[in-house]
Amino acid sequence: MRTKRVIGWIVGFLIIAEVVVVLLSWLLSATMTTGVRPLLSSEGVRWFFSSYVAIIGAPWLVWLLLLSLAGGCMYQSGIFRHGSKPLGKLQGLGYVVAVIMLVIYVACILLLTVAPHAVLLSATGHLSASPFSRALVPVIAMGLIVCSLGYGIVTRAFTSIADVCASMTDGVRKAAPLFLIYVLMAQLVESLLFVF
């Protein structure tokens, strides 16, 4: 209940801040303040409608989606839900399988990045500004999913592909408030950049 209230306050603040920016941009442009473009002008309305998809379609949205998929898979697999209870035979075997899958996954990533002339290096042969650095969050999310799947399959938390899909969609459902906050925050930031 407290989380819902906090999310409500954040969303309310972002909506009010957007309204303030719209009205402030109109007032400042009416007083002939230089360097201010009003959002209520024809230029502002055209900008908002023509660039709205680009505003919210940034890499942050993709990262949030992938991490929520990974989070749902991790949570439903039970890989971090043991606390101080002693591990059973299946849980111990699940951790062994998860570690083995993690080692194999990291080895594959290293082969694609560390070797000379590796596929994921930049044109200059470095990791900075390379395909790997641009895909770091998806690589991490995929690694978390792979380990969680290994653990969940061994411990029978996942008995079918439907279970795996349900775990990932559950992660997106639980992260849904973050998507709303992201959309409103991206809109507010881009509005400020347009106005000033």
Keywords:
196 residues, mainly alpha, 8 helices
Condensed summary:
This protein has 196 residues and is an all-alpha fold. The chain has helices at residues 2-30, 42-56, 59-77, 89-113, 131-134, 136-154, 161-174, 176-195.
SSE inventory with pairings:
Layout: H1 2-30, H2 42-56, H3 59-77, H4 89-113, H5 131-134, H6 136-154, H7 161-174, H8 176-195
What does this structure look like?
The chain is mainly alpha-helical and 196 residues long. The protein contains eight helices and no strands. The longest helix is centred in the first third of the chain and has 29 residues, at 2-30.
Low-pLDDT parts are none
Average pLDDT metric: 91
Please work out how many helical segments DSSP would assign.
8
Total beta strands: 0
Order of helices and strands: HHHHHHHH
Distance between the termini: 38 Å
How large is the share of residues in beta strands?
Answer: under 5%
Helicity level: over 70%
Rounded radius of gyration (Å): 23 Å
Largest sheet: none
What best-fitting shape do the alpha-carbon axes yield?
Answer: flat
The assigned structural class equals mainly alpha
